[in-house]
Amino acid sequence: GQQSFVLDGSNTGLGSEIAVDGGFDTDVAIDTAGTYWETEETVAISDGAGVWDGSQSGPKGVFQAILAHNTTYKVTMTVTASAGTISAAQSSGVVFISETSSGTYTGYGTTGTSSTLFYISGNAAFAGTVTDVSVKPINAKNHATTVFYGEDLDC
User: Fold this and answer.
1) Residue 91: C-alpha distances to residues 6, 61, 66, 141, 143 (Å)
2) Residue 14 pairs with which residues in a beta bridge?
3) How far, CA to CA in Å, does 1 sit from each of 4, 71, 134, 153, 155?
4) DSSP string spanning 110-149?
5) Is 56:41 a contact under the CB 8 Å cutoff?
6) What is the mean pLDDT of the segment spanning 60-84?
7) CA distance 118 to 152
């Protein structure tokens, strides 16, 4: 009989936002587990921004457990930098963004199986702020096949 095949290989686009309080609306004191973000050492969340004063002893930052393993993400953040390097990464995994100057940056990467922590980290010299953090999964393509048999259709 007659048969037709349909293959859907379209990209289904970006998933929903998974960064909780990416606008840093909820303040978190230095070295504190806040409601949404956890801060380290000399880093705080204040007045709508993650704030690094440049006095941290090494790479320190803010983080939250939001990542899934083996998933591709689009990450966006706005940086105001006066010194050092700021990065957005999977803890002990893929680096999405690493920058030394002010601007709005977008990066992509696929996580491994090392951690579920999304980590924004300034090196020991970083002084500046981060705002407007967005983390969205990129949905995988759907490679399904459907077969239609002409004589099985009731019309």
Assistant:
1) 41, 11, 11, 26, 31
2) 138
3) 10, 41, 51, 12, 16
4) E--SS-SEEEEEE-TT-EEEEEEEEEEEBPPP--EEEEEE
5) yes
6) 97
7) 51
- pLDDT category of residue 139 using cuts at 50, 70 and 90: confident
CA dihedral 82, 94, 22, 17 (to 10 degrees): 150
How is residue 67 written in tokens? 């990542």
The C-alpha angle 68, 69, 72, rounded to 5 degrees, equals: 80
What's the distance, CA 66 to chain centroid? 8
Q: Which of 83, 85, 87 is nearest to 127 (CA)?
A: 83
* Rounded Cα gap, residues 18 and 100, in angstroms: 25
Classify residue 62 as exposed, middle or buried by CB count within 10 Å of its CB (0-12, 13-18, 19+).
buried
Chain segment 83-123, per-residue pLDDT in tens: 999 999 999 899 999 999 999 999 999 999 989 999 999 99
* Plot region of 121 (φ>0 → left; ψ -120 to 50 → alpha; else → beta): beta
Residues 6+ apart with CB under 8 A from 124: 56, 57, 58, 59, 84
